Amino acid sequence: MTQPFSVPRRLIVAVGGNALDPAEGRGTPEEQKAIAAATARAMLPLLELDNQLVVVHGNGPQVGKLLLANAAAQDRVAPQSLDILVAQTQGALAYILAQAFENALREAGNPRHVVGLVTQVEVDRHDPAFANPTKPVGPFFSEAQAKALAAELGVTVREDSGRGWRYVVPSPKPKHICDVSLVEALMCGRTVVIAGGGGGIPVLRDEAGRRRGVEAVIDKDLTAAVMANVLGIRDMMILTAVPRVAVHFGQPQQRDLARASLSEMKRYLAEGHFPPGSMGPKIEAAIRFLETGGRRVIITSLETAVPALMGETGTHIVHDHETEGDDEAAAVAGSRLLRTPAALATA
């Protein structure tokens, strides 16, 4: 059972790219804005908290579609490099999300501001990910469709966790968040900051300090972990498609995890419970965050974000010593849980 959780004064929330991309439909501007509005309504209790809030969003569906358009139109329009495509999705999605967040806040009578920052993230030129693309992006295809596209357009495809076939691109680890002081300055003024979108625009820096883009897509959860550690944010929430992380996922012995220690999650990851390109990077990000100064990671769905923050659902990953005495604490947890968004705002 999860434990009661007082609302942190600083919080970083990582939102998947599917928060703006329909599972069904074409992903038209109207569809994207409607989904963003629904995301904003679901996150409104978080947006209204009197705390410092940073939001990092994914871009996998969107940047994959741009890659497809890039390849399909290459005889008519000069193809753009992947770093520029990441920048395009970062700006566009930050605009749509910021507008949706502010609209939801204004409808609730809240004057809080939201801003999106174009964020570059430095990576290591020697990262082995450049030689082994693993990051799934874009729409799902059947195996036959994917292999036909690969042959026609020269892209790399791979099966994605039993859900279909997708493009895969290099996904190096984030080393440094460029201009992170700007995020902190805005955050400290109680502005909701959308930063590191799509994991950030991947760049390399030379000995003279000059930066240049590189073709890759950084995992947004890993970027959120690095950003949180730099900013002194000790609590991270990762919003995904499921309310809780599970071991033996999709099998008869599947078991949802309500509360788990750092060492337990490291063991589960080593045992192969969390596949790359799916839950794997989220668990890796949680481990990295906790090992470099974080206190708690909550993994849950967008729809259950508020109950999870209140300790009622979600997977809560904490340091080993925090799980000691869980059985005794569970017996009294119900009497200590926060129950309403109003209680969250005043905690």
From TrEMBL:
Keywords for this protein: Kinase, Transferase
GO molecular function: kinase activity
Signal peptide positions (record): none
Residue ranges annotated for the Aspartate/glutamate/uridylate kinase domain, each copy included: 10-301
Keyword Translocase on entry: no
Pfam families: AA_kinase
CDD domains: AAK_CK
InterPro entries linked to this entry: AceGlu_kinase-like_sf (IPR036393), Asp/Glu/Uridylate_kinase (IPR001048), Carb_kinase (IPR003964)
UniProt record similarity statement: Belongs to the carbamate kinase family.
Name under which the protein is recorded: Carbamate kinase
The species this protein was found in: Rubrivivax benzoatilyticus
